[in-house]
UniProtKB/TrEMBL annotation:
The keyword Signal applies. This is cellulase. Its EC number is 3.2.1.4. It is an enzyme of class 3 (hydrolase). One of its GO terms (biological process) is cellulose catabolic process. Keywords: Carbohydrate metabolism, Cellulose degradation, Glycosidase, Hydrolase, Polysaccharide degradation, Signal. InterPro entries: 6-hairpin_glycosidase_sf (IPR008928), 6hp_glycosidase-like_sf (IPR012341), Glyco_hydro_9 (IPR001701). Residues 1-31 form the signal peptide. It comes from Vitis rotundifolia (Muscadine grape). It catalyses: Endohydrolysis of (1->4)-beta-D-glucosidic linkages in cellulose, lichenin and cereal beta-D-glucans. Pfam families: Glyco_hydro_9. Residues 37-338 form the Glycoside hydrolase family domain.
Amino acid sequence: MGLKMASATKYSMVMQILSLTLCLLTLSCSAFTSKDYADALAKSILFYEGQRSGKLPSSQRLTWRGDSGLSDGSSYHVDLVGGYYDAGDNVKFGLPMAFTTTLLAWSVIEFGNSMPSQIGNARAAIRWSTDYLLKAATATPGTLYVQVGDPNMDHKCWERPEDMDTPRNVYKVSKQNPGSDVAAETAAALAAASIVFKDSDPSYSTKLLQTAMKVFDFADRYRGSYSDSLSSVVCPFYCSYSGYHDELLWGASWIHRASNNASFLAYIQSNGQTMGADDDDYSFSWDDKRAGTKVLLSKDFLEKNTEEFQLYKRHSDNYICSLIPGTSSFQAQYTPGQPKQSHVLPLFLNRLQELLIVLN
């Protein structure tokens, strides 16, 4: 009973932190209306339609974009049509595409109920990627296709994807040429997306999760960095500078959350120490997943009293505090805010620090 009450108290404190944060944001952004934020959200999701590769659907809203990359993979006898182009390139890079998908899915998991007018478009954006990732993961046994397009050639010619005439080379990782980083991130994307579609499309959700488990097993069983296997094809564009341990722990954490499979909890417990659980890391990106993993696992500690994850919650606190001005571990840099609201921040930070002390 005492443990449950303590957990409830901690959860209440977390909600106070979130409430204070929202209050601060409301005060600091009073010049904007809810419509402005709704429009920003809509445009953020619409952006992905401009990055689509493949045969565009009738529901495509950016009508100036046409079909492209319709023969991707054909010269290798696989179907790799679809997915997203990277930024202004016509290359489909598997590592950042998968990471983008994981974060899109995470945003819907956590905040989907707060964006009812955009939830359909958000799911469509996720599915456009996962449909492609499923092809890449299942086309050839023991293989994951991780890139379409030669980036060195592509960067020499900036052109519309509808008109591109650069080589559509296909690159893959395999048992002999492993890529644990890109494979584990792909597994994370598929697992996170399986949660998104669990209620709206159960059969698709099951397919995503089952594939995620198989891809993760491939990533873990045949260890190595895709940067070593593919060299100048992925470096310096999306070189895996942080190695692959962070992706393995990240992927296992997402499958654990999606499946509640005890074997993945055991995997996290057994491998966490060697994969970054003890590291305080102050960045979160397509390359380094350690901070994100700790926040993800902290949720289990706060909501389910999973004591094994208390360590991750402590490191998550350190990461969050590194972003907050006035804390002893503050490391971030911010552009100037609104001077007229400057008196609000110290009061907020004082209360936040008090709550963090109680939580710890």
